Amino acid sequence: MEEISHTCQMGNGIPPLPDDQGCTMMMQRYCYECGGPLSLSYPEGDERPRETCRRCGWINYVNPKVQVAMVATHQDRILWMQRAEEPRKGYWSLPGGFMEVDESPREAAVREAKEETGIELDPESTELYVVGNIRSINEVHLLFRAECNSHFTNPGPEAQDAQWFTEENAPWQKLAYGIAEEGLRRFYRDMRTNDFGIYYAEIISDELYLTNYHRSLDTISSKYNL
Question: Boundaries of each Nudix hydrolase domain copy (predicted)?
Fold first, then answer.
Protein backbone atom coordinates (compact mmCIF):
# COMPACT_ATOMS: atom_id res chain seq x y z
CA MET A 1 0.00 0.00 0.00
CA GLU A 2 1.62 3.23 -1.17
CA GLU A 3 1.42 6.06 1.37
CA ILE A 4 1.16 9.68 0.27
CA SER A 5 3.59 11.85 2.18
CA HIS A 6 1.80 15.18 1.82
CA THR A 7 -1.61 16.78 1.82
CA CYS A 8 -2.72 19.95 0.07
CA GLN A 9 -5.27 22.20 1.77
CA MET A 10 -8.01 22.99 -0.73
CA GLY A 11 -9.92 26.21 -0.16
CA ASN A 12 -13.40 24.68 -0.33
CA GLY A 13 -12.62 21.59 1.74
CA ILE A 14 -13.76 19.23 -1.03
CA PRO A 15 -11.76 16.21 -2.19
CA PRO A 16 -10.33 16.78 -5.68
CA LEU A 17 -11.63 15.18 -8.83
CA PRO A 18 -9.63 12.28 -10.27
CA ASP A 19 -7.83 14.48 -12.79
CA ASP A 20 -6.46 16.88 -10.15
CA GLN A 21 -2.71 16.58 -9.82
CA GLY A 22 -1.49 15.24 -6.48
CA CYS A 23 -3.61 17.40 -4.19
CA THR A 24 -5.77 15.59 -1.64
CA MET A 25 -7.23 16.92 1.59
CA MET A 26 -7.66 14.76 4.68
CA MET A 27 -11.33 14.81 5.77
CA GLN A 28 -10.78 12.80 8.96
CA ARG A 29 -7.79 12.21 11.24
CA TYR A 30 -8.61 9.13 13.32
CA CYS A 31 -10.02 5.67 12.67
CA TYR A 32 -13.67 4.94 13.52
CA GLU A 33 -12.79 1.32 14.33
CA CYS A 34 -9.74 1.54 16.60
CA GLY A 35 -8.93 5.23 17.04
CA GLY A 36 -5.61 4.89 15.25
CA PRO A 37 -4.15 7.65 13.06
CA LEU A 38 -5.17 7.87 9.41
CA SER A 39 -2.91 8.62 6.49
CA LEU A 40 -3.52 9.00 2.78
CA SER A 41 -2.51 5.94 0.80
CA TYR A 42 -3.46 3.89 -2.25
CA PRO A 43 -5.12 0.62 -1.13
CA GLU A 44 -4.17 -2.39 -3.23
CA GLY A 45 -6.05 -2.34 -6.53
CA ASP A 46 -7.41 1.19 -5.94
CA GLU A 47 -6.60 4.13 -8.20
CA ARG A 48 -7.69 6.78 -5.68
CA PRO A 49 -5.92 7.85 -2.50
CA ARG A 50 -7.93 6.89 0.60
CA GLU A 51 -7.74 7.76 4.28
CA THR A 52 -6.42 4.50 5.72
CA CYS A 53 -5.76 3.50 9.33
CA ARG A 54 -2.08 2.77 9.97
CA ARG A 55 -3.01 0.44 12.83
CA CYS A 56 -5.89 -1.79 11.64
CA GLY A 57 -6.11 -1.03 7.90
CA TRP A 58 -9.67 0.40 8.01
CA ILE A 59 -10.43 2.62 5.01
CA ASN A 60 -12.54 5.78 5.20
CA TYR A 61 -14.42 6.08 1.90
CA VAL A 62 -15.55 9.69 1.40
CA ASN A 63 -18.84 9.64 -0.51
CA PRO A 64 -21.14 12.38 -1.82
CA LYS A 65 -24.00 13.78 0.25
CA VAL A 66 -27.55 13.60 -1.11
CA GLN A 67 -29.62 16.77 -1.54
CA VAL A 68 -33.34 16.62 -2.33
CA ALA A 69 -35.76 19.32 -3.47
CA MET A 70 -39.45 19.55 -4.32
CA VAL A 71 -41.27 21.21 -7.21
CA ALA A 72 -44.77 21.54 -5.77
CA THR A 73 -47.43 22.67 -8.24
CA HIS A 74 -50.94 24.06 -7.90
CA GLN A 75 -52.80 24.65 -11.16
CA ASP A 76 -50.31 26.60 -13.32
CA ARG A 77 -48.06 27.70 -10.46
CA ILE A 78 -44.91 26.46 -8.74
CA LEU A 79 -44.19 26.99 -5.06
CA TRP A 80 -41.05 29.05 -4.43
CA MET A 81 -39.56 29.87 -1.04
CA GLN A 82 -37.63 32.97 -0.02
CA ARG A 83 -34.56 31.98 1.95
CA ALA A 84 -34.27 33.23 5.55
CA GLU A 85 -30.71 31.99 6.04
CA GLU A 86 -27.36 32.31 4.33
CA PRO A 87 -26.19 31.53 1.78
CA ARG A 88 -28.32 33.76 -0.47
CA LYS A 89 -30.58 35.05 2.27
CA GLY A 90 -33.58 36.91 0.82
CA TYR A 91 -33.32 35.16 -2.54
CA TRP A 92 -35.78 32.61 -3.92
CA SER A 93 -35.38 28.89 -4.51
CA LEU A 94 -37.26 25.61 -4.27
CA PRO A 95 -37.70 23.97 -0.85
CA GLY A 96 -35.04 21.36 -0.25
CA GLY A 97 -32.17 20.10 1.85
CA PHE A 98 -30.14 17.06 2.85
CA MET A 99 -31.54 13.57 3.36
CA GLU A 100 -31.61 12.12 6.86
CA VAL A 101 -30.28 8.61 7.46
CA ASP A 102 -33.68 7.07 8.26
CA GLU A 103 -35.75 8.25 5.29
CA SER A 104 -36.22 7.63 1.59
CA PRO A 105 -35.47 10.35 -0.99
CA ARG A 106 -39.21 10.91 -1.48
CA GLU A 107 -39.80 11.22 2.25
CA ALA A 108 -36.91 13.66 2.54
CA ALA A 109 -38.26 15.90 -0.23
CA VAL A 110 -41.75 15.91 1.33
CA ARG A 111 -40.31 16.67 4.78
CA GLU A 112 -38.21 19.56 3.49
CA ALA A 113 -41.20 21.03 1.65
CA LYS A 114 -43.29 20.87 4.83
CA GLU A 115 -40.56 22.30 7.08
CA GLU A 116 -39.86 25.24 4.79
CA THR A 117 -43.27 26.07 3.30
CA GLY A 118 -45.87 24.27 5.44
CA ILE A 119 -47.45 22.27 2.60
CA GLU A 120 -48.61 18.68 3.11
CA LEU A 121 -47.73 16.10 0.46
CA ASP A 122 -47.97 12.32 0.29
CA PRO A 123 -44.57 10.77 -0.54
CA GLU A 124 -46.34 8.18 -2.70
CA SER A 125 -47.76 10.97 -4.88
CA THR A 126 -44.34 12.36 -5.80
CA GLU A 127 -42.53 11.69 -9.07
CA LEU A 128 -38.82 11.89 -9.81
CA TYR A 129 -38.01 14.79 -12.14
CA VAL A 130 -34.24 15.36 -12.07
CA VAL A 131 -31.27 13.36 -10.84
CA GLY A 132 -27.85 14.92 -11.09
CA ASN A 133 -24.68 15.88 -9.34
CA ILE A 134 -22.40 18.81 -8.60
CA ARG A 135 -18.88 17.41 -8.43
CA SER A 136 -17.29 20.60 -7.15
CA ILE A 137 -19.21 20.35 -3.85
CA ASN A 138 -19.42 16.55 -3.73
CA GLU A 139 -23.24 16.31 -3.83
CA VAL A 140 -25.89 14.23 -5.59
CA HIS A 141 -29.17 16.08 -6.21
CA LEU A 142 -32.65 14.57 -6.57
CA LEU A 143 -35.59 16.76 -7.59
CA PHE A 144 -39.15 15.50 -7.15
CA ARG A 145 -42.46 16.92 -8.33
CA ALA A 146 -45.95 16.72 -6.85
CA GLU A 147 -49.34 18.36 -7.25
CA CYS A 148 -50.61 20.16 -4.15
CA ASN A 149 -54.36 20.20 -3.50
CA SER A 150 -54.28 23.49 -1.62
CA HIS A 151 -52.56 26.84 -2.10
CA PHE A 152 -52.17 27.23 1.70
CA THR A 153 -48.59 27.86 2.90
CA ASN A 154 -47.03 28.38 6.31
CA PRO A 155 -43.32 29.24 5.97
CA GLY A 156 -41.02 27.74 8.59
CA PRO A 157 -37.93 29.27 10.26
CA GLU A 158 -35.76 28.69 7.18
CA ALA A 159 -38.07 30.72 4.90
CA GLN A 160 -39.01 34.39 4.91
CA ASP A 161 -41.90 33.72 2.56
CA ALA A 162 -43.45 31.07 0.31
CA GLN A 163 -45.40 32.00 -2.81
CA TRP A 164 -47.01 30.29 -5.80
CA PHE A 165 -45.66 31.77 -9.04
CA THR A 166 -46.49 31.39 -12.71
CA GLU A 167 -43.54 31.58 -15.08
CA GLU A 168 -44.48 35.16 -15.98
CA ASN A 169 -44.48 36.54 -12.42
CA ALA A 170 -41.71 34.40 -10.89
CA PRO A 171 -38.85 36.40 -9.26
CA TRP A 172 -36.20 35.39 -11.79
CA GLN A 173 -33.98 38.36 -10.93
CA LYS A 174 -33.87 37.20 -7.30
CA LEU A 175 -33.25 33.52 -8.00
CA ALA A 176 -30.83 32.21 -5.36
CA TYR A 177 -28.82 30.19 -7.86
CA GLY A 178 -29.01 31.47 -11.41
CA ILE A 179 -27.82 28.17 -12.83
CA ALA A 180 -31.19 26.65 -11.81
CA GLU A 181 -33.16 28.94 -14.14
CA GLU A 182 -32.94 26.63 -17.16
CA GLY A 183 -34.27 23.69 -15.15
CA LEU A 184 -37.15 25.70 -13.70
CA ARG A 185 -38.15 27.09 -17.08
CA ARG A 186 -38.02 23.55 -18.47
CA PHE A 187 -40.44 22.48 -15.73
CA TYR A 188 -42.87 25.30 -16.55
CA ARG A 189 -42.76 24.16 -20.18
CA ASP A 190 -43.39 20.52 -19.25
CA MET A 191 -46.24 21.63 -16.99
CA ARG A 192 -47.93 23.51 -19.85
CA THR A 193 -47.78 20.45 -22.11
CA ASN A 194 -48.38 17.96 -19.27
CA ASP A 195 -45.50 15.93 -20.69
CA PHE A 196 -42.91 15.59 -17.94
CA GLY A 197 -39.48 14.24 -18.67
CA ILE A 198 -37.04 12.56 -16.33
CA TYR A 199 -33.77 14.43 -16.60
CA TYR A 200 -30.15 13.81 -15.79
CA ALA A 201 -28.39 17.04 -14.81
CA GLU A 202 -24.68 17.78 -14.84
CA ILE A 203 -23.08 21.07 -13.87
CA ILE A 204 -19.75 21.60 -15.60
CA SER A 205 -17.85 24.90 -15.42
CA ASP A 206 -20.97 26.74 -14.21
CA GLU A 207 -23.04 25.44 -17.12
CA LEU A 208 -26.14 23.26 -16.60
CA TYR A 209 -26.61 20.32 -18.96
CA LEU A 210 -29.96 18.48 -18.97
CA THR A 211 -30.56 15.15 -20.71
CA ASN A 212 -34.09 13.76 -20.99
CA TYR A 213 -34.16 10.04 -20.19
CA HIS A 214 -37.96 9.74 -20.28
CA ARG A 215 -38.15 7.55 -23.41
CA SER A 216 -35.25 5.27 -22.54
CA LEU A 217 -36.63 4.71 -19.03
CA ASP A 218 -40.01 3.77 -20.51
CA THR A 219 -38.24 1.15 -22.61
CA ILE A 220 -36.28 -0.25 -19.67
CA SER A 221 -39.38 -0.38 -17.45
CA SER A 222 -41.30 -2.26 -20.12
CA LYS A 223 -38.48 -4.69 -20.87
CA TYR A 224 -37.90 -5.64 -17.24
CA ASN A 225 -41.53 -5.26 -16.12
CA LEU A 226 -40.62 -2.80 -13.36
Answer: 61-188
